[in-house]
Amino acid sequence: MSKEISLEQIANFKNNVESQPGNAIIRRAVVNNGIYGTALDKKASIDNTPVFSIDLDTGKVANQKQSGRCWMFAALNTMRHDIKDMFKLSEEFQLSQSYTFFWDKFEKANYFYENIIKTADEALDSRKVAFLLATPQQDGGQWDMMVAIIEKYGVVPQAVYPESQASSASHELNVTLNLKLRHDAVILRDLIAAGSTIDQIAVKKNEMLQEIYRFLSLTLGEPPVKFDFEYRDQNQVYHHERDITPQEYYQKFVGWDLNEYVSIINAPTTDKPYNHTYGVEMLGNVVGGRAVRHLNVEMDEFKKLAIKQLSAGQSVWFGVDMGPQIDRDQGLMVRGVHREGELFNIDLAMSKAQRLDYGQSLMTHAMVLTGVDIVDGQPTKWKVENSWGEKVGKKGYFTMSDAWMDEFCYQIVVKKEFLPDNLKAVYETETATLLKPWDPMGALA
After folding, report:
1. Is 416 a residue whose pLDDT tops 80?
2. I need a surface site. Which of 131, 251, 383, 427 has the fewest CB within 10 A?
């Protein structure tokens, strides 16, 4: 039976607050400085100085600006690090995040249409259809989705396909595109309900895709089919490539075998036993492309894999919940940097599994690990290359405490060669358990 809050209860609550002298001081501090400003613990900065025993030189950070392309920036940054060193490119060199953005938007539209068609026999208020319509597409993604784009479309230098207003500030593009996709969902569901043939539906979907392509071309610019690439290396030697395709450019200047890179997660919930693989229903972008697939491992193994790759001189794409316990000004991701529980004398403790199960946490941001500090054989803090520009953190870099990683880091991408034999066998042979579309491991960074 429901019970309302009484005025007598409120009076008692008020008297309890006012009877504690320290609350007046706390109120003044929080009202003037905010919760995090008042709860900031300066010791977090002292204990996490940005010095690392393994520290890769990755150059200047990039800036995703007002867009949700962190997963693209992080992936292209890991590749850029190799390109910069191998070809002695300048610190300013970047691969085009706008180019992969174009094709991701286009492919996500098709992915949405296909899912609308597959669920056309379900009611609008079914959880799957409601899930699809809540956000037909967005900027975010995961590593395997980036692989699917690159394998199909290659990459290009940023100078060849530069930023546009809509790629750097994507809100208007997303509002318009989602309106278009929901509009088209009405048509597709109505056609299927009316008994249209497969061919009739295919013709209509093709018309829709033509409209999507035109919209993206006029908004982001027409992506190149072939281009010329000229540059001077750090020794001022001139180089040029004529009439090269994006796929050829990827093979020559990046050359990674993307099948060798594996998504590793740490999800300590009871529905995901460790040392098994997981996919997510209706998560992806390229129909027929690489599917999202995670290998779930314990945190100690998770860290060992990241350290192996860093020790081999290669940075690590990783995904986190970039909300709790961070200080943007100081570039800190430290458990205890804000002590709001102590400030208000309230218990805010939840385990990592509880935060996932109860909707308190999920992966919201992707970045790059470029260093780690190992003391007595154990990691104590990690160096993080962000994509928020040089004005945030320490010239764009953050220091992440090892304890913060335990609680809020969910995903890394490492080469198969660093996996122990038992985990490699699991990844290569096991059929992945398919998770629900709304599972937190399907969150888009």
Report:
1. yes
2. 251
pLDDT at 89 over 90: no
CA distances from 209 to 173, 286, 416 (A): 16, 14, 37
Say if residue 84's pLDDT is above 90: no
pLDDT at 399: 98
Start-to-end C-alpha separation, the chain: 41
Determine the Cα–Cα distance for residues 399 and 209; give it in Å rounded to an integer. 43
Residue 193 tokens read as: 């309900």
Rounded distance, CA 167 to CA 94, Å?
Answer: 15
- Average pLDDT taken over every residue of the chain: 97
Strands 54-55 and 261-265, sheet pairing:
unpaired
pTM: 0.96
Q: Which residues are catalytic?
A: 70, 365, 386
pLDDT (tens digit per residue) in 177-211: 999 999 999 999 999 999 999 999 999 999 999 99
Q: Amino acid identity, residue 137?
A: Q
The pLDDT confidence band at residue 170, using thresholds 50, 70 and 90, is very high
- pLDDT attached to residue 337: 96
Dist. CA 375–CA 302, nearest whole Å:
18
